[in-house]
Amino acid sequence: MTTRTLLDLRLNQPRFQGMEAGHRACQGCGQALAARLVLEATGPDVVVANATGCLEVFTTAWPDSAWRVAWLHSLFENTAAVAAGMEAALKAQGRNTKVLAFAGDGGTFDIGFQALSGMLERGHNVLFVCFDNEAYMNTGVQRSGSTPHAAATTTSPAGVARMGKRHLKKDILSIIAAHHIPYAATASVAYPADLRKKVRRGLQVDGPSFLQIHSPCPLGWAHGSELSIEVARLAVQTGLFPLIELERGALTGAMHIRQIRPVTEYLKLQGRFRHLFTDDPRAREELAHLQALADHNIEIYDLLGNSPEALDTEGADTVRRGGLHSA
Amino acid sequence: MPTMTPGAFAHPATSLDFKTGTWRTQRPVHHLRPAPCHSGCPAGESPRDYLARVAEGNLQAAWENLVAANPLPAISGRVCDHPCETACNRGQFDSAVAIHNVERLLGDEAIRCGWDYALPPLAADAPKAALVGAGPAGLSCAYHLRRQGVRAVLMDRLPVAGGTLRMALPGYRLPREVLEAEVARLLAAGIDFVPNMALGRDVSLAELQQDYAAVFLGPGRHRPRNWDVDGHTPRDLHPALTLLQEWVAFGTLPEIHSAVIVGGGNSAIDMARVLARTGAKVHLVTHDALPGPGVAREAAMKVAPRDIRAAEEEGVILHPEHGVYHIILRGEKVAGVELVRMKKLALGNGRYEVVPFEGTETVLHVDQVIPAIGQEVAPDGMESLLGKRAFFHVDAAGRLAGHAGLFVGGDARQGAWGTVSGAVGDGRRAAFAMLAHLRNEAAAQETEIAPIGLAELNLNYFEQAPRAEEVLLPVADRTGCAEIAQGLSAVQVAAEAARCFSCGNCMACDNCWTLCPDQAVLKTRELAADGSHYVIDYDYCKGCGLCAHECPVGYLAMEVEPVASAPFASCRTEGTPLDAPVLR
Fold first, then answer.
1. Is A130 within 8 Å of A38 (Cβ atoms)?
2. Claim: this prediction has a pTM higher than 0.80
3. Do B550 and A314 touch (CB under 8 A)?
């Protein structure tokens, strides 16, 4: 097959590829996958405000751009404010183009937080997507408000003094929920059909919506590039990253876990938790702590389904001949 | 009009100029692997491939795929012990796909709809081959020769074709109408059948070899083996095959109150079932173990598990892994037998030894012993070939050493499978060896590639789903020749096809296309060159391995990247336009 026909094929794919090949993301990047899946669901009639971070850097190495949609790079701290302005401008022009804001967990949980809170409070019709890879990966894996408890980063190393990060992962969704916005949800790259469904729902509602996507980072989490989906799936199946939907702050949906896996299955795949598998009483305590956090999630979000369901953790990713996915 | 400086913007999708494929140290490749169902099938069928056609809703295409290997699916779907299902990876996940039911439905649909075997027209100077014995081996060999443009002349000593299928298979397992219909259709498709032609009586082997450059012998095993215990044979001994053939032909049996049947094959089980229906108390004693997971095929009864289950339901008392030590005689009448526990133990070189265990002897009180320990080849007309041997010793393709142009298959060869599918496979392999002989070519070698195992699939993408079970005739109604297994409906068969894991072959599930973070997997509407629906764009593939790890069916594998001709090739292949757009 010649290059010409391969390019023809690429230009005639039966989906919208809002982010194209040739971007410089690492091998197995969960965020690159998540960004394409989001745009697959939105279609081309969107504008994107993108905070500083990996996504911005690897898609737009000058003079190239990987984007097929109108895309604007904002600062780290003001993505939500820029998106709010774009939304106001489009509204003034009487256009229906949807506005998306893309940010990493640093640009959502920490640095961009006040702008996000303001945007939600003012009720702008923007879908804010947080690609949650649980640390500042672009600058060299520093801890963020999203880094899970006991994970090692360059600024929360595991060693004599501590077993990785001593603090907890910030419960951003509860904070978002406290703004009483129409729709907020979590999604995972391991469940693409569920992810796309939540993007469409976020665009449907009138007013601000928020989507937190768990996006594994092979470099920062120290796992093989081929394991990104495996790791993301286990985060959901252990209960450490529950997939839930909130409307006006109230829980309206949760992906039930058909078969709950122990958290060690998730942790042992990742180098950032390697210290938890040493012969050390503190390691055993932290493992028990992380299991308790997962059990707590399962309890408060009622993640344990009663029986097999079509869209629980086992059913939602079932493949069918000919690719007939449920979304 | 204000313009943007080049540093402030980029054109859409210009990243395509940057070929990230140069980063790669390993590459994903499509790698078609044999499925365990195929490797397990002695007839050489590819159930995975015809299940795919069934799942697509094209039953005729499925049947065509099936009869490319086995021309008798309605028959083998009923009577085969389906080693494909024993091998099925799904068996270790929930339960095996009901392949035999799919095969049976396809065969029945072909009979009902009259689907054409589509054998090619014969050239006037087509080479000729003679086949002796119109059982499953001979029918299969003739069919495969005809598919390759060889005129096949099939002869049998009986007035009708079918061989063992007709003589020894009871109607409750293989209804006569199905046998008649499928064999008649196959013969009508273009095989010359010569009835009432017995080797050694009407024609000699030498005459056949004079007239035909290639001769296939599929005489089956029709002479009961001599049976004795310590040199003793009871006087009124009836071998099971003789009794069974009588029952199949005339529906009569001698009056027997209690009997022990010695043997672990299909004739033993059928004999036991037929006898149990007359009200007799029937024991079945065999060295073999009950087939099941972890039991080697060599050490297990060569009977489909469903037939063993049915026999037990019908009152047959099984004694697997037992043997007869002594026959207890009162005068010349049998009063009972002494049983002992035995086990077939592996000797390590692929052979097995039967070991009796002292101290485990028990006595069974019966008035009849019926040996069903197998049969030998009736040597009529083949005495010179067979010598003192009970069976023919041939190679995998049925070639008889020292006799160019002579081929043997089916039950008559040493080490035969002893099943319909085994005979069909023998016939197919022999047909290709005969073809090579007729064309004076070297025969192609069939190479065995290890099938893909369960560990190489990604089971996260499959859900548990119950296997469809066919309805069986109630035990009380099992009296005559009414078929016991009722088969599955077309809807159930479609559901079974959807349960297939498609081990080792693409099922177009879109997983690689959906999950590639680099958009390096492209989907095609038509089939790609390798038969899948996806093309990997190596210009952009970074070799992360995610697609291979997440491929549900193990069709994608990672390979070390071949050494590039220009190791430091630039990622960039062409210049990027930098014209400034005009802002409005």
1. no
2. yes
3. no
